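Write out the bound-state structure for adenosine-5'-diphosphate.
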Amino acid sequence: MKKAAAVIVAIVLAALAAFVVYDATLNKTVSESFFAMNTIVSAEVTGVSAKEDCTEIEKIVSRLDTETLSRTAEGSEIFRLNKNGGGEIGEKTAEYFSLLIDVCEKSGGAFDFTLGGVSDLWKFGSNPEIPDENALANALLHSGYKKVFLDGNTVSVSDLLVIDFGAAGKGIALDEIKNHLEASKAKRAVVAVGGSVLLYGEGEFTVGIRNPEGNSGSYLAKLKTDACCVSTSGSYEQSFEKNGRIYHHILDPKTGYPADNEVLSVTVVSDSGLLSDALSTACFVLGVEKGFELAEEYGARAVFVTKDKKIIARNNIEDIIEITNEDYTLVIQ
Ligand code: ADP
Ligand code: MG
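---
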């Protein structure tokens, strides 16, 4: 018996050793970056099929953009809805609609994915300018998420309303990438689609909160987290100055003008990419107090950077945040 037990132990040890060698030789880390969804996408994947995963990530983001979310790519689902005043959409897209309608409702309309006509007038991304007041009032009149109806896989939209998933599309991309990584059994990955980041797999991750007043490589704070999605909405992303005032691309659906409150940026941590992205935009418009309430309704965590150089968070983030810029003060509310 003793001999049999020893043989079993030896076999198990040999199997373990074989596994370790197998693991050490076949897991690779591959990085790549490319341009899609009007932003830079960078991916670092560790796993046995890391190279194929990177290739697939590029396909996922490009496909999602051109076949579903883009407002300008003819043939995308959103393009067709806007052109035809509604129509049939795929099951996954219907699910995104349903989740985003919920964010519109729960945010009291601070998040509104029907502002396409209004943001077009601001021309962010080309030659931004303050729109003509009448044109803005007219575009605002035709927008409003309450004018969108979802019935199963059918969307109907009132005339002249322009659907724009720009505030959630990068997060949706993260969710689709995460599904792929789960299926391909990747070990670990960090994928950034603009200001939305997927932290996937084992171990701890560190993600920076950008200094809204500094250049793109300058950070105010670090968050140490497990796997999750982290999105930041900041007025610094797209803005212009006119007559001493800064105008940016996150709009208050009530006025059609850039949201104007104490906030410079909001970072939201959630298991869902769609929610982290949509909520960061919503919280920006809502401001600190109402923003925290909304994030918490979704079980998400938020960090606000404000104009008076504060980093405001709730105690659900105290353990994972480290301030790295001494001009800013951490306030736990
Ligand atoms: P970024 O695109 O820089 O990641 P956001 O995720 O905050 O930033 O999305 C901002 C984009 O969403 C704008 O460029 C515009 O297309 C759209 N948008 C602007 N204001 C709102 C709003 N209140 N609700 C929903 N979408 C908005
Ligand atoms: Mg967003």
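---
Residues 1-22 have pLDDT under 50 and may be disordered.
Residues 111-113, 115, 119, 124, 164, 166-167, 170, 194-195, 233, 237, 249-251, 253, 277, 281, 285 surround adenosine-5'-diphosphate (ligand 1) (CB under 6 Å).
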